[in-house]
Amino acid sequence: MKILSVVSTRPELIKMAPIMHEFKQREIENVFVTTGQHYDYSLFKSFLEDFDLAKPNEDLEVGSGSQGFQTSISLLKLEEVIKRHSPDAVIAEGDTNSVLAAALASQKLLVPFIHVEAGLRSFDRTMPEEVNRILSDHCSELLLAPSKISEKNLLLERIDQDKIVVTGNSIVDSFFQNAKRADSSDIINEVKFDDFCLLTIHRKENVDDLKKLQTMIAILLKIKHNLVFPIHPRTKAILLKNKLFEKLASLKNVQIIEPVEYFDFLKLLKECKCILTDSGGVTEEALFLSKPCLVLRNNTERPEVLSKICSLTGIDEKRILDSIEKVLVEKSTKYNGQLGLPGVSKKIADIIQKRYESGQLIVKPSNFFEKRYY
Ligand code: UD1
Ligand code: UDP
User: Fold this and answer.
1) Ligand 2, pocket-test mutation among 51, 127, 200, 276, most atoms within 8 A of CB
2) Which segments in the chain show pLDDT lower than 50?
3) Less packed terminus of the chain by CB within 10 Å, N or C?
């Protein structure tokens, strides 16, 4: 079997790495393609090294740009690459513009598309990611849902039950296979505080809105805890453009650092008191570690992570300041497999191989049309 894996951003690489390793162990030929959506060493290449992956077979060098630019150029270039390699299936994980382009290109070429992390819904269509999720799922022949909740979302959109398999999320493997290795990271020597909370923020709805960004800086000043902040390039670029970077960097309780490699980030996660983030993957890792966490959003497509120690706060001063003290004293509970247990990637590779070998991995007209009312 020949599969084409489209993996183009930091979280996709982290979550697809254990799956691509599973392909390597079997008779599955893997063509590794990046659209080039993330191109900085610290957002892409460092993870190839961390996960012991060879560089992509194809780099489409699409780079940064507007939503329309990134999606359309990726679609155009992926169409050519899929035609040239003629794979039996295309696979991608998540909700980025590159994933949507991969799903559309595959569907239009009638090559089966496999969506890892299918069925996540924030029910907020103002997020580019939500639109990407919905459209990608509806272009998929095999939908690998991380939980029963995500499966239910797909069924409610009338996606065929037999296209959906609940597998868990492959970040379970990325995390548990590497958590021990993180112990040897010496990143803590670079942290200037004795104790700290870990902050990441990069969502379009948070950082492209200047007012929200200014509010966030004002809130950080009022937080009575130290914060280590590995800054996403999107956030850094906007702060610099609006002359807010210096202001943030001058806060005594905030230490801005460059994005760090995976093992260093896991070490920071393990050592911090609490996490403040608008990232999807980071909230999942907070769940595995039973770490107190504030989700700096008003909604989430990952309800599995919410608990007494993990609250939605948006960028709201009162909610953030109150919640941080609350989650810090709540009793934590051990991860109980809400997103699956180690072995998710093996399960995913097994399902793909089985469906391919039994001739089930083909593009077929959906049952949806068979249930028409006319
Ligand atoms: C993208 C995804 C988001 C995901 C995030 C993971 C979409 C719509 N968004 O957001 O869902 O959570 O990746 O991190 O697909 N930049 C660099 N170097 C890079 C890449 C980007 O400097 O290697 C800067 C550029 O200024 C660019 C900006 O970051 O304009 C935004 O990059 P982009 O890939 O469009 O979106 P992300 O914010 O990274
Ligand atoms: N991460 C990392 N270094 C950092 C920040 C994050 O390795 O400096 C990892 C983190 O462990 C998580 C993933 O990046 O697995 C999350 O990526 P991101 O927040 O960019 O995207 P999202 O998950 O929100 O789509």
Assistant:
1) 200
2) none
3) C
Residue ranges making up the domain that contains 258: 180-329
| Domain total of the chain | 2
**Ligand 2 pocket: which residues have CB below 6 Å?**
10-11, 14, 200, 202, 230, 259-260, 262, 265, 279-282, 285
Read off the tokens for 225.
């805890």
Q: What is the pLDDT of residues 185-216, one digit of tens each?
A: 999 999 999 999 999 999 999 999 999 999 99
Distance 12 CA to ligand 2 centre (A): 9
Task: Tell me the one-letter amino acid at 230.
Answer: P
CATH code, domain with 110: 3.40.50.2000
64 and 207 housed in the same domain: no
Return the ligand number nearest the Cα of 281.
2
pLDDT recorded at residue 368 = 60
Taking only the tens place, the pLDDT of each residue in 269-295 is 999 999 999 999 999 999 999 999 999
Instruction: Compute, in angstroms, the gap from residue 170 CA to the centroid of ligand 2.
Output: 14
Transcribe 233-255 into DSSP letters: HHHHHHHHHTT-HHHHHT-TTEE
Say how far apart CA 93 and CA 12 lie, in whole Å. 6
The ligand that comes nearest to the alpha carbon of residue 258 is 2
Catalytic residues: 202
Check: CB of residue 351 under 8 Å from CB of residue 167. Answer: yes
Q: Is the CB of 234 under 6 A from ligand 1?
A: yes
Question: What's the pLDDT tens digit per position in 157-174?
Answer: 999 999 999 999 999 999
Residues 147 and 185 in one domain: no
Rg (alpha carbons) of the chain, rounded to whole number:
20
**DSSP code for 141:** S
**Ligand 1, atom nearest to 37 Cα:** 34
The pLDDT, as a whole number, for residue 333 is 87
Whether residue 225 sits in one domain with residue 312: yes
CA of 205 to the centre of ligand 1 (A): 13
- Report the alpha-carbon distance of residue 92 to residue 17 in Å, rounded: 11
What's the confidence (pLDDT) of residue 365?
A: 79
